[in-house]
Amino acid sequence: MNLLYATLEFIGVYVYVSLASLLWAGIDRKLVARMQRRIGPPLLQPFYDFLKLAGKESIIPRDANRFFELAPLLALATSIALLAYTPLGFEPIFGTKGDVVVFIYLLTLVGFVRMAGAVSSGSPYAQVGAQREMTILASREPPMMLALFAILWRLKGLGVEKPFSMGTFYEHSVWELGTPLSVIGALLLLVAFLFWLSSEIEVGYFDIPEAETELAEGPMAEYSGRHLAMFELAGAIKTFVSASLVVAIFFPWGISGQLGLTGLPATVVELLFHTLKVFAVLFVSMSLFRATTGRLRITQAVNMLWARLLPASVVGTLLLIIDTLGVVA
Amino acid sequence: MKLPTTLSTVLGNLFKKPATNPFPKTEPVPVPEKFRGKLVYDVDRCVGCKLCVTVCPAGVIEYVPEVRKVTFWLGRCVFCQQCVDVCPVNALSMSDEFLLATTDKYDDNLRWFHGEEIERLKEKLAEKKKTKA
Questions:
Q1: Which chain A residues have a beta carbon less than 8 Å from that of B19?
Q2: Cα–Cα distance between A72 and A131 in angstroms, integer?
């Protein structure tokens, strides 16, 4: 019975996040349009795009292998599975001890499946796109993992029920420590995380694998029709999930406590509030970033991720460690 | 890492009105003086001197010897206005019309003096000849 409820909850969350993430895509396009003094598409444009793609003929290239058709399905399935471990204003549905590893694994797997599907298409454009996808994928995860594990380790020190799970952010937040060192460290990690988010959803500087103008959509070059629609939806969900991670780590405060709600209404209110926070984080990390920056070359991006972002993570982590060990009292 | 210089511009733009003209809902952007739009042909003025046929770079104009007039297919027109400039009797002029999209390239909208009009003029000329004779 419990499992049944969890499954229903999971389906509900999936439907909600699909709608919310596509809505965000619409808001993002509208905002970027207004930043460039354009009117922009209607708010629900991504929904129309999705329905149109879903209704169109899907062309399979002659040189594509079996995995080409399987990849979009796997990408969507992976991003849906990811929702079970995503903090959405409340503890993840299937959250357990140490589920952070599952979360990171699934998040990376979405990118990996995209790459594998692109390689399976037999198009040289997609091959180049896939290479870049892989390069940037390998470069952007270490800073994120380091920062995430450092914060979870720090929270574990405060005494939590399930250490190293995504739910611990709602028991203690990284700002609670309150010491100057920890605040500086946390701020550094926040900046690192915002850049990681941009590279995770591949906008602005990091729009490298898809690179419309130079690579003709890169990994997505050969995808059309419902396969592309599935990838679009998976990408939108992944965007929402990645931003949810940042929100859960740095802005985990809820409002149901202030409103004095409990039970189901509290959950719904938290979910809506969390969505608002996700939109705010994405506004900075996606819309603004996309409107103000151009693409980097892949070498520059890798250089930036390893030589800027990783040191920022390392320094932030060291500050947290020093703060904990009480070396500098 | 310095902040992108466009940041202030972009954030300022958020609070400004879009600088666009939502065309189907509004009038299109007004055309300037001496705008070279769709060619207009006045059959009655035309004396059939063939100067426009000579000067046209796109092969829009064809001479119809039986009636000593010209016929146009504007699907080829490049709006260079040379026929207008060269016409000695001002039978040609450029209008302000520029929304010329059609689904059929042989649409009446893109032709001047063709088909039935030519036939009718031929009949007229024949009748004239009869009355003279």
A1: 37
A2: 18
